[in-house]
Amino acid sequence: MAAVGVAPVELIEEDASELQFPKEFENAETLLVSEVHMLLEHRKTQNESAEEEQELSEIFMKTLNYTQRFSRFKNRETIAAVRSLLMQKKLHKFELAQLANL
């Protein structure tokens, strides 16, 4: 028995190959693996210089190692240059990140 006055919920199927993402990702920015690596390194450095150094989680360390291994660009200037070049191609931000991470 259907509820009266209730509109059916339209389900939009997510499909990255068709650039269909959930609403939560509409205003989200994408990061390159190199950018994630820089952020994690900064966090690790902050932790090491803190008065009370906390042990970083196993997942944090595994993610840091992964990003170190697959990080292609080593400085901010290079990352900015790659982003600038790819932005000229009028790519979706997801496509830009995927290509830059190859």
Name the assembly state: single chain
Overall mean pLDDT stands at 87
Residues in β-strands, percent:
under 5%
Give the N-to-C terminal Cα separation: 51 Å
Write the element-wise H/E pattern from the N-terminal end onward. HHHH
- The stretches of 5 or more residues where confidence is low (pLDDT under 50) are none
Structural class: mainly alpha
Range of helix content: 40-55%
For the secondary structure, the number of strands is 0
Supply the number of helical segments.
4
The radius of gyration over CA amounts to 20 Å
Largest sheet features: none
Shape: flat
Model description:
The termini are far apart. This protein has 102 residues and is mostly helical. The chain has helices at residues 33-49, 58-70, 76-87, 93-100. The chain has 4 helices and no strands. The model has no long low-confidence stretch (mean pLDDT 87). Helix content is 49%, strand content 0%.
Topology:
Elements: H1 33-49, H2 58-70, H3 76-87, H4 93-100
Helix pairs in contact: 1-2, 3-4
Overview features:
single chain; 102 residues; mainly alpha
Outline of the structure:
The protein has 102 residues and is mainly α. 49% of the residues lie in helices and 0% in strands.
